[in-house]
Amino acid sequence: MKRFAVIGAICASFFLGAAFSAVAQDDRHEDRREEKEARKDDRREEHQEKRERHEEKREEHRRIADEHFRERFGHEHHFAVRHVTVVEGRPHFGYGGYSFEMAERWPTRWAYADDCYIDYVGGGYYLFNLRHPGVRVAVTVLP
User: Fold this and answer.
1) Which is it for the CA torsion 46, 50, 52, 53, positive or negative?
2) b or e along 75-85 (b: 16 or more beta carbons within 10 Å of the residue's beta carbon)?
3) Same domain, yes or no, for 86 and 53?
4) Euclidean distance between CA atoms 132 and 130, whole angstroms
5) Residue 88: which domain range?
6) How much is the pTM?
7) What are 39-75's pLDDT values in tens digits?
8) Are 80 and 113 in contact (CB under 8 A)?
9) Distance (Å, rounded) from C-alpha 134 to C-alpha 39?
10) Phi-psi region of 102 (alpha: psi -120 to 50; beta: other; left: phi over 0)
11) Residue 31: helix, strand or coil by DSSP?
């Protein structure tokens, strides 16, 4: 009878240990999930801050004259960016006699040789890539 009691106690301790281990593992998974969500929120906030800074800076920068814009810009006028320089941590490129600053990083799926165009939408200039419709990057015309 004592053997059964000892064996029962040993089995119970194993089951309790396994249960505690499973609870601890769930807690670690939950912590990781919370950290991942916090990083996502940080990236969203960073992206929103960049957009807001771009909106503020847009008012200070140059505007392309309408007749010149129609001659060289818009959906009908494609170009490959080819060369991006980084000035004070911000990507810059030139096209059509103008210098542009990107409000965001160069999108990962875009290639510098892709056909792009710059269009004026909702009061601001945006870089579009023909291979990736629906994605746009805010740009500022530099003085």
Assistant:
1) positive
2) eebeeebeeee
3) no
4) 5
5) 66-141
6) 0.58
7) 888 788 887 777 776 666 555 567 899 999 999 999 9
8) yes
9) 25
10) beta
11) helix
